[in-house]
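The data are quoted verbatim here:
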Amino acid sequence: MIGTSTSFYGYGDKSIEIKIEKLINIFSECGITPYIQIGAGKSNMEYNKLIKTLNRFRKESGVIFTIHQSIWLPSDDFYINIASSDEKIRDASMKCIKNNIDFAKDIEAKNVSFHGGYATKILTQLKEFAPLTAHAQVSYEEAYNNSNESLKELKDYAKNDIQLSIENFNYRPERRYMFSRVNDFKNLPTGIGIILNVGHLYYTEKRIKDNNYIKKMIDVLKDRVYEMHLNDNDGTEDLHMLIGDGNIPIKEIIKHVSQDKEMPHLIIEAHKTRHKYSDNDLKNNIIKLKNIVKDI
């Protein structure tokens, strides 16, 4: 399926149900069943009213929901880190994801994805789209142990009702990012999938100067890939531009991931205000992706 993320409209500002309704209208104009990823953000509605509203959207438009990160944060400045060695941060992060799993069940979403963690205790972000700042670093060995234990617990919580996936990060050792190199996934618990971010793949390939990096990552991860984040960049930064506005060979990457298996769900994850896009730009990009898929 072809989808897009509510992160197109940013993480703050409008309530999540307003963003969803806008995206449903864009898909309607494209003549495509809406596949909408509910990304980080907020809702101004009481929970039961939100569930009722989103299920009404499903009934009226046929929209299919998927979830990334969480709108259930303990505070606006909280950043999820299931690899934290700070017990309070890790417990709060786990609660966010478990709330996401419950949320998914209530709106009949089948996929929940999130970040696998950072080798630090606490993360902060000064403003939307700004770099994350790591505080109180921990060793990568400790962080991966924490992350894998968290993932096992979350998998048990989800049972077999929800497919859980983590996202491949771009290579940012200065920010203590995890899950960006092939070996980072070697101990990933059975049953945990991958939401493959092509922008992170391309940025990392250019940064580490390994022209075979993308191929090696796909060869190792493709059987775990259930969804893909599609965005573009020029290799110098993780820019989250619309497809075709950068240098990423997106068609070739989709084709490689889909070889000998069902094509994952494809989610456009671009940022409107960051690049001064319009809703019409997103609509045209959805149609462009539809034509790319036809040629694969």
